[in-house]
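Customer escalation, tier 2.

The customer says the design service returned an amino acid string that "doesn't look like it belongs to this structure." They asked us to rerun it and document both sides in this ticket. The original structure tokens are below, unchanged.
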């Protein structure tokens, strides 16, 4: 009788589509807090794409398009941005999305304690409701990256009703206006979402739910995909690509990342640190010179990534050609340490607790050791590592950024004195001036010169040693159709079906 009941239940589920339309995604880490104003992880952005629509989005070709907005206009003096909003949109709790909700969200992003969006919107002075579906952002100066920023977490809209009711606990059960609504989160295990019936673009959502499962080991993620326990994984190991391509049941879309990976070094967070790596730029230059970026790329990533030394890849029009990648030079590194008056520099290098993160750390450890560094590896769960970094409880951290379509998104928050993601404690007023001026400049050539001037100050300091830029891979079952890989690395389920 029990077997019969289970069989009937299975047939009922198949008949309603519920058994086959939940997509399970293997993530490389467990996201941090699910609040778009507080979140800072790449995997968090992946989850947010299903939960929280934005004012604007991008295409795979990096064109900015409206999402919860329908259009915008900028005043002749560049000091105000008027955004027309989509009508008929509801948040998951039934609250209506309108100009008041948009105003609430922009102000929340600027003013919420601990908001990582505050410096992104620093040039927004005030927000006015023009009418029910029009909002105006008044600026302290023209702000070229603003629309690009509103195509990411700064433009995500949360329910004002839920945000006010839940306060600092909002991230435990977020309420947004995306295609899927929050069901449950079990830390280090899963995040479960279900289709939102009243989603404004419901006809393009063809699956009933998404489950995100953090699985740090890339080989385990792949094994789960091959066995049918997952429908998709992100950040497949480059060394597994041949295996994936040879599997007739899998598809391997990819895109070049907009972001970077590197070593972030703590100089003075939350206060000045008294050690050679933090105190002396010659020591940091020696560390840089001890590292062979090509070795990291070839050994860990099978040569699939792009070596680099800046916040944008060498292929970017914003790359500063006047600051080329330097090759490994152990003898010069030793000479710099001698010049700095130190024979051996010991520090702890924090890495993400996954096979690739540990391997990158061990290669750096070995290469730097040849130049006179004693590096101890601290493999740490990723969200925990970010917390330690924010608290200043680290020496150096192999960490990156998933990237933005405007260079401001890769640079400003990290390199300005009050930037929300400045975890190094480095500060230079002239760099602040150049990067803020770049935000106000509309002419591309003039903007480039400002970014170049800033880069020629912050890059030689090496408080961030940029190492490489990733190629993004999203292997999935061939039963999943309609998926496109985006250079921002975000998984979007609009137009995706599961057969």
């Amino acid at each position: 009788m029990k077997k019969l009941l289970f069989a009937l239940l299975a047939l009922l589920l198949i008949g309603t589509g519920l058994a086959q339309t939940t997509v399970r995604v293997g993530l490389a880490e467990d996201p941090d807090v699910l609040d778009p104003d507080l979140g800072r992880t790449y995997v968090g952005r992946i989850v947010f794409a299903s939960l929280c629509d934005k004012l604007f989005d991008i295409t795979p070709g990096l064109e900015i398009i409206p999402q919860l907005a329908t259009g915008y206009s900028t005043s002749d003096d560049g000091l105000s941005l008027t955004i027309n909003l989509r009508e008929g949109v509801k948040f998951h709790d039934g609250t209506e999305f309108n100009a008041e909700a948009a105003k609430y969200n922009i102000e929340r992003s600027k003013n919420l304690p601990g908001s990582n969006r505050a410096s992104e919107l620093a040039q927004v002075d005030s927000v006015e409701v023009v009418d029910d579906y029009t909002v105006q952002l008044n600026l302290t100066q023209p702000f070229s990256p603003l629309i690009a920023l509103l195509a990411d977490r700064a433009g995500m809209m949360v329910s004002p009703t839920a945000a006010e009711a839940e306060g600092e606990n909002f991230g435990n059960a977020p309420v947004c206006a995306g295609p899927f609504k929050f069901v449950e989160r079990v830390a280090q295990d899963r995040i479960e979402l279900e289709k939102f019936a009243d989603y404004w673009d419901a006809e393009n959502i063809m699956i009933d739910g998404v489950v995100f499962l953090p699985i740090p080991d890339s080989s385990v993620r792949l094994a789960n995909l091959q066995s049918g326990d997952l429908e998709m994984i992100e950040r497949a190991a480059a060394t597994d690509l041949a295996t994936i391509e040879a599997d007739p049941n899998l598809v391997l879309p990819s895109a070049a990342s907009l972001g970077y990976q590197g070593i972030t070094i703590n100089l003075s967070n939350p206060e000045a640190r008294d050690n050679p790596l933090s105190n002396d730029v010659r020591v940091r230059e020696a560390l840089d010179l001890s590292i062979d970026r090509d070795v990291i790329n070839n050994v860990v990533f099978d040569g699939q990534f792009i070596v680099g030394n800046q916040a944008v890849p060498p292929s970017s029009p914003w790359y500063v050609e006047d600051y080329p990648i330097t090759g490994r030079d152990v003898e010069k590194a030793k000479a710099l340490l001698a010049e700095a008056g130190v024979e051996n520099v010991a520090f702890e290098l924090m890495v993400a607790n996954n096979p690739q993160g540990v391997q990158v750390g061990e290669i750096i450890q070995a290469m730097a050791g040849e130049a006179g560094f004693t590096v101890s590896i601290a493999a740490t769960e990723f969200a925990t590592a970010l917390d330690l970094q924010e608290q200043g409880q680290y020496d150096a951290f192999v960490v990156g950024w998933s990237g933005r379509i405007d260079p401001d998104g890769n640079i400003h928050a990290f390199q300005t004195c009050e930037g929300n993601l400045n975890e190094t404690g480095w500060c230079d007023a002239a760099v602040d001036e150049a990067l803020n001026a770049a935000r106000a400049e509309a002419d591309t050539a003039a903007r480039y010169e400002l970014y170049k001037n800033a880069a020629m100050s912050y890059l030689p300091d090496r408080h961030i040693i940029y190492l490489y830029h990733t190629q993004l891979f999203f292997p999935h079952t061939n039963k999943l159709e309609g998926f496109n890989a985006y250079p921002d690395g975000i998984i979007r389920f609009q137009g995706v079906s599961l057969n």
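Tier 2 assessment: The sequence is consistent with the input. The longest strand covers residues 124-131. Confidence is low (pLDDT under 50) at residues 1-18. Sent an explanation to the customer and offered a walkthrough call.
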